[in-house]
Amino acid sequence: MEWLKYHPPTRENSSQIKANLKATFFYRRSKLVKEAPSITNQLAEMPRFRDSPDLINFEFDMLNPGCGSKMLVKWNPYFRPKLTQLSEEAARFNDLDVFKFLLKKLPTVTAKGFKSKGYDVFSFIMQRRQTGTDVEAFAKTKDVIYAQPFILALGDENGNPTEYFIIVDNTSIPGGTNAVEAFDRLYKVHYVFNVHFAKPVLTFFNFFDGLVYGVSKNIRPTVRELYSQMMQEPQQKEA
Question: Is residue 67 within 8 Å of 215, Cβ to Cβ?
Fold first, then answer.
């Protein structure tokens, strides 16, 4: 544990870092479940998850063998087209639009104070700001209702994201190079740091739990119903 804490990743020690993560896996997970430290405290003890965020994938794979690559492998060739066939606006959809469409197709749970303050449900998954935003300042001053991890996407005035970060507690982790990579990392962060999904989007994440990553067999009825719709052949429009 001490070695991992004080050895930043280099080309020479990357394999040693992974070997030490494997060797300490069961001890670290047991301690995490027992003590339930904040993500901030976890990153202080294990800063490698911040400066080498690909290790989040590595840790997730140890937690859920065989599940780690499923989002990146299945999303574009399978789940995205199955979802977009349910919308008449699919031709204009990018990945963010598909995530938003999926959220609209599933029920949301109202968090305390959610309606009264006019929050957008998608903000529990992703928020967007202009390029140049001070990410750490944003993380430290975010609304307290956003206690669970979410994506911060930075982009130009036209709303095209070019940078992604995962906001965790009052700090951030690099989020990847595109929306799908960022969502994949967001999903895995919850498991790696042992935190719950935000209440308003529980059913949304259950879709990924049960259908995409396959880490849970507890699939909600509304998710099963949506999946059944996705499996139906699209009807041909009359000429």
Answer: yes
Beta-strand relationship, 150-155 and 126-130: parallel
Asked whether residue 196 carries a pLDDT value surpassing 80, the answer given is: yes
CA distances from 231 to 12, 90, 207, 238 (A): 47, 16, 14, 21
* Pair of tokens at residue 230: 């996705």
Q: Which two tokens stand for residue 57?
A: 């994938």
The Cα 152–Cα 168 span in angstroms is: 10
Average model confidence (pLDDT) across the chain: 90
| Helices and strands (H, E) in the chain, number of each type | 13, 4
Query: If you ran DSSP here, which 8-state letter would residue 111 be given?
Result: P
**Which contiguous run of DSSP H or E holds residue 80?**
helix 80-84
User: pTM of this prediction?
Assistant: 0.91
Residue 235 has pLDDT above 80, yes or no: no
CA angle 91-69-197, nearest 5°? 80
What's the CA gap between 148 and 130, in Å, rounded?
A: 22
Q: Would the CA dihedral through 96, 101, 104, 108 be positive or negative?
A: negative
Cα separation, 27 vs 66, in Å, equals 22
Amino acid at 44: A
Contact criterion met (CB below 8 Å) for 48 and 59: no
DSSP labels for 157-193?
TT--EEEEEEEETTEEEE--SSHHHHHHHHHHHHHHT
How do residues 86-120 score in pLDDT, each as one tens digit?
988 767 788 999 999 999 999 887 655 454 455 68
